[in-house]
Design brief:
The protein is of the alpha+beta class and about 375 residues long. The chain has 8 helices and 17 strands. It is elongated.
Length: about 375
């Protein structure tokens, strides 16, 4: 048993049609025992815009996405405010066009609120024109619950004079009798070609009990995912470990080339540090210290080096010649600014030159 509930249209209020084993019974107002049998809500024909388009049939999500793109191009209303539903009437004479229904989100939400107020949760919401059979050609017209409806293969609208006559014109048409309309309602109730209860307005299904088979499958799937994740981590750790060992072996082999030939290797890092210290000298080393001294001399015009002696403790004793009394002091300050400790000896003046010695060491 199925009940068709027709929403108010014009001056007409709620009307219903109950189908029980092919028998049709009509009534007005809220149908009796509405919550006990499946209810299909039928909004007025002028409340839903219908289109037909060739859409993908593999995935409902793909079909709806494509339909929303088409509707966005044809509608002045922002697509975010519209609800788009896609149906399927099957392929007819090589044409795979599918019906697309468009209605404002606020309107369909209000329909559901009104139905809930009278204790009805619609199983389907089917536009009125789609209750009529799809004609092979031309138009079919019929009166459903006191309201005229017309449709063709790719259109559906309210049969309101004189607009409907202007649309149909001289095209071939067929007017259905009351018995033919009831037969069409029985067929449409058994297999609706389009249901507006899709996407955000889909009917929520209530689960009774626990599907333990599904729970077991989900548990096995979760365990498999964890094992695969663990295996990936183990492989990554092993890869990093092998790579680190290979890099360490390569580093040690490269370090051996920097040691003296025939030297026994115990700790490559320490032995290389010792050899580097022996090569560059104690302290900061010969090269670093002398480079800093020459930089200070270049930065003090009028001074020159007359002697340079690198000591075993890493300090450097330098002989300095200058054109004026103040220049040795300027050179000393420049070396101290570079981070060295400078000890100046006694400077003497002779033949217009000032000469003396300084000891430059690491602080």
């Amino acid at each position: 048993m199925t009940t068709l509930l027709f929403l108010p249209a014009g001056t007409l209020g709620l009307r219903w049609c109950r189908i029980d084993q092919g028998a049709v019974r009509w009534g007005e107002g809220v149908p009796p025992d509405a919550g006990e049998a499946p209810v299909i809500v039928v909004p007025p024909a002028d409340a839903v815009a219908l289109h037909w388009a060739e859409l993908p049939s593999r995935s409902p999500a793909q079909a709806i996405a494509a339909a929303r793109l088409l509707v966005a191009e044809a509608s002045a209303t922002p697509i975010g405010e519209l609800h788009v539903a896609v149906g399927d009437e099957g392929e007819v004479e090589g044409s795979a066009e599918r019906p697309v229904a468009v209605v404002a989100n606020a309107v369909i939400a209000q329909w559901l609120v009104d139905c809930a107020a009278i204790g009805i949760d619609p199983q389907h919401i089917v536009p009125a024109p789609l209750l009529l059979p799809r004609p092979d050609e031309g138009y079919v017209r019929g009166t459903i619950a006191g309201v005229g409806v017309a449709r063709s293969r790719t259109t559906g609208f309210a049969d309101e004079a004189p607009l409907a006559d202007l649309v149909i014109g001289d095209t071939m048409q067929e007017t259905l009798t009351a018995r033919m309309v009831e037969s069409a309602l029985v067929a449409a109730a058994a297999a609706p070609v389009l249901d507006l209860r899709q996407g955000p307005f889909a009917r929520r299904r209530r689960r009774i009990g626990i599907d333990w088979a599904l729970v077991r499958r989900l548990a096995l799937l979760g365990a498999a995912i964890l094992l695969v994740t663990l295996a990936i981590d183990l492989v990554r750790i092993a890869k990093y470990s092998f790579g680190a060992d290979a890099l360490e072996a390569r580093t040690e082999a490269l370090g051996r080339t920097g040691l003296a030939r025939g030297e026994t290797v115990t700790d490559v890092d320490r032995q290389l540090a010792e050899r580097l210290s022996a090569v560059r000298g104690p302290g900061l080393g010969f090269s670093t210290t002398v480079a800093a001294i020459y930089a200070a001399v270049r930065a003090t015009p009028g001074t020159e080096l007359t002697a340079l002696d690198f000591q075993s403790n890493g300090s450097v004793r330098i002989g300095v010649g200058a054109a004026r009394e103040s220049l040795p002091t300027d050179l000393k300050r420049a070396l101290e600014a570079a981070g060295f400790t400078v000890t100046a000896g006694t400077f003497q003046s002779a033949n217009g030159r000032v000469t003396g010695e300084m000891t430059v060491s690491r602080p």
